[in-house]
Amino acid sequence: MITLRPAQERGHAHHGWLDSFHTFSFASYYDPQHMGFSDLRVINEDRIAAGAGFPNHSHQDMEIVTYVLDGALEHQDSMGNRTIIRPGEVQRMSAGTGVTHSEYNPSPTDAVHLLQIWILPEQLHLQPSYEQKFYPPAEKQGQLRLIASQDGREETVTVHQDMSLYAATLAPDQAVTYEIPSDRRVWLQVVRGAVTVNQSPLQAGDGAGISKERSLQIVGQQPAEFLLFDLQ
């Protein structure tokens, strides 16, 4: 079964410096029909204006993954990390017992476009931790590249939950197949272009919750990029 979550039905908040679309309930956007999917709690598609950003704020007991699409994002946190996240890089921060951080767009001219993803951890009150890794575009072209996992295999960032996160880019008519174990569910989020998933069309910003399917065939209709979450 494939349940579509169209881009135009997402929550939306525009604060001038921040233009944000919420796949699931977040902040002042509340939709009891879309509170998350398995342990996936938040997918926010954010555009942050040049020179703007989130001032210091706190998180606790959440796995936070940041995936930059265009531009650059400056991160600073109470663990002593100060980094720039660019396209191709994946950041994972485990908030655990509590962490404070800020996120800014350091460019004086260009917006930064990113996805911020929250995943519920398997255990509360973990020690806060941080990772950031780069995945060359060639490793995602025409294939699923594992970028986050519970055990850190294949040089992925480690997320403290039973899940695996893949990224892929597809040219038109290029396809990948994903076999789904019988006890797993999948969320697919299209971030650029357009694809079909088992012949169901999805465009940029669309998501799909998938259960009771044995396999997925994902075909590029336009040059496309997507994330695939394998979840309990």
TrEMBL record:
Q: How is the cofactor bound?
A: Binds 1 Fe cation per subunit.
Enumerate the GO terms in the molecular function aspect: dioxygenase activity; metal ion binding
- Organism name: Neosynechococcus sphagnicola sy1
What positions does the domain Pirin N-terminal occupy?
A: 8-119
What keywords are assigned to this protein? Dioxygenase, Iron, Metal-binding, Oxidoreductase
Question: Could you identify this protein by its name?
Answer: Quercetin 2,3-dioxygenase
The family database entries (InterPro entries) matched by this protein are listed as: Pirin, Pirin_N_dom, Quercetinase_C, RmlC-like_jellyroll, RmlC_Cupin_sf
Positions bound to Fe cation? H57, H59, H101, E103
This protein's record includes keyword Oxidoreductase: yes
Q: What is the lineage of its organism?
A: Bacteria, Bacillati, Cyanobacteriota, Cyanophyceae, Neosynechococcales
